[in-house]
Design brief:
344 residues; alpha/beta; 9-stranded parallel β-sheet; two-stranded antiparallel sheet; 13 strands; binds zinc ion
Length: 344
C-alpha cells in the first residue's frame, strides 16, 4: 500500500493536502535538556502549538507538516503525537541527526553504518525512543545533515573524504541511503548555505545516497536556495532530486526576508521555466516552541520563531503570482509534490 506515515498512523497520499515539508514543533540545541531555564510544561506547550496550527489549518488549509527535529534537538514523540491529536494536523516525524558540529552525540559517532541503518528502519517501522523509553510512535522520513553548521563561519573544511562531510556525517548519510533503499521512504536533508560557495553540498549528499542504492526522486535537498546559485540548483534538478524552498519569511544569512523572498521567487520561476515544477516544495523552517533560557542578545535562531504561518499565503504566494506563477502551480508545489515524495 502507498502511504504517508504520520505519528498517529498511515494516511493516503490523497489526504495529505497542503503540506509543509520542514518545520519544528519543538527545537532545543543539544544540552538544553539539562538547563532548568529551558524546561517547559507539556500541556502548556501542546496547547500553544495546537492553537497556532489550528489557525494555519483554518485560514490556509494546511493539513500536513513534517517535523524535521533531529533526535538530539529535542525530538519529542509524545508531544508531537499530542499536538497531532489536539490539532488534527497530520504530522510526520523524522529519524536522523543534525550536522556533527551542532550535534550527533558520541553514542552515534562510534556505530557502524548498518547499526545506524537499522536504527532508522526501526524508528520508522516500530517506533521512536525518548529518554530511554521506547514508544510505538513511528517516524515517517529520514533526515540527514552535513556541513558547516554555525551559519556565519564560512564553508566547512574538507572532510577526510574530500567533501564537506565529516567521516561521521558520511556514515550517517550512507546509513540513510541503505534505509531508503530498504523502505522507499523520503530522505529530507540539511545542507549549509555557506558550503555552496565552494562546492554543491546537495550533490555531495546525492552521490553518497545513490552509491548506497537510494532513489534521488525520494530526496528533498534543504536550504539550497538560501545562498542561491542558479547553476547549482539546476544541477540538482537534473539529478532528478527535489528542492525545498525554505526560510520563506525568515532572513537566515540574508539581509532581510524581503530580499531572500524576492531572490527565491525569481529562482522558482526560472526553475519552472526550465521544466522542474514537479521537483519543488515550499516550507518555513519555523520553531513552534524553542526550548532555551531567557535571551540576553538577539540570536539568528529567533528569526525562526517570529514568522507567522500566514506569511507564505499572504506575502510569498502573491509575490509569485505577480511573476505569473499560477494557482495550479501552487497546488503542485504545496499538495501534489510533497504527497508524492513523502509516500512510500
Ligand atoms: Zn530546520
Amino acid at each position: 500500500m502507498i502511504k504517508l506515515r504520520t505519528v498517529l498512523g498511515d494516511i493516503s497520499p490523497g489526504d495529505a493536502g497542503v503540506t509543509l515539508t520542514h518545520e519544528h514543533i519543538l527545537y532545543a540545541n543539544p544540552g538544553a535538556e539539562f538547563d532548568r531555564r529551558a524546561a517547559f510544561d507539556f500541556n502548556t506547550v501542546a496547547d500553544e502549538v495546537t492553537t497556532t496550527m489550528q489557525k494555519g489549518m483554518k485560514d490556509h488549509g494546511i493539513r500536513t507538516m513534517v517535523d524535521m527535529t533531529a533526535c538530539e534537538l529535542g525530538r519529542h514523540p509524545d508531544l508531537i503525537a499530542e499536538v497531532a491529536r489536539r490539532s488534527g494536523m497530520n504530522i510526520i516525524a523524522i529519524t536522523g541527526f543534525f550536522p556533527e558540529r551542532l550535534g550527533i552525540p558520541y553514542h552515534w559517532r562510534v556505530q557502524g553504518i548498518d547499526y545506524v541503518r537499522d536504527f532508522f528502519i526501526s524508528d520508522i517501522t516500530q517506533g521512536m525512543a525518548f529518554g530511554f523509553a521506547s514508544t510505538d510512535i513511528k517516524a515517517g522520513a529520514i533526515k540527514i545533515a552535513t556541513g558547516s553548521g554555525d551559519g556565519h563561519g564560512g564553508p566547512a573544511p574538507d572532510g577526510p573524504n574530500g567533501t564537506h562531510m565529516t567521516r561521521t556525517e558520511e556514515h550517517l548519510v550512507r546509513a540513510a541511503g541503505r534505509a531508503q533503499a530498504a523502505l522507499g521512504c523520503c530522505v529530507n536533508t540539511h545542507t549549509d548555505p555557506q558550503d555552496y560557495s565552494v562546492r554543491n553540498p546537495g550533490i555531495e549528499q546525492l552521490d553518497v545516497l545513490e552509491s548506497e542504492g537510494a532513489d534521488p526522486a525520494k530526496v528533498i535537498i534543504g536550504h539550497a536556495l538560501v545562498n542561491l546559485d542558479m547553476k547549482q540548483l539546476l544541477e540538482l534538478c537534473e539529478r532528478g532530486t527535489n528542492l525545498q524552498i525554505d526560510h520563506i519569511g525568515i532572513p537566515w544569512q540574508n539581509p532581510s526576508a524581503e530580499s531572500l523572498d524576492e531572490a527565491m521567487a525569481v529562482a522558482v520561476c526560472e526553475l519552472v521555466e526550465a521544466g522542474y515544477l514537479d521537483q519543488l516544495v515550499f516550507t518555513y523552517d519555523r520553531f513552534f516552541h524553542h526550548c532555551r533560557g531567557p535571551v540576553t542578545e538577539e540570536e539568528p535562531e529567533m528569526l525562526n520563531e517570529g514568522v507567522d504561518l500566514s506569511y507564505m499565503f499572504d506575502s510569498f504566494l502573491p509575490r509569485l503570482a505577480k511573476k505569473g506563477f499560477t494557482e495550479a502551480e501552487v497546488k503542485k508545489v504545496l499538495v501534489d509534490n510533497p504527497a508524492r515524495i513523502l509516500a512510500f
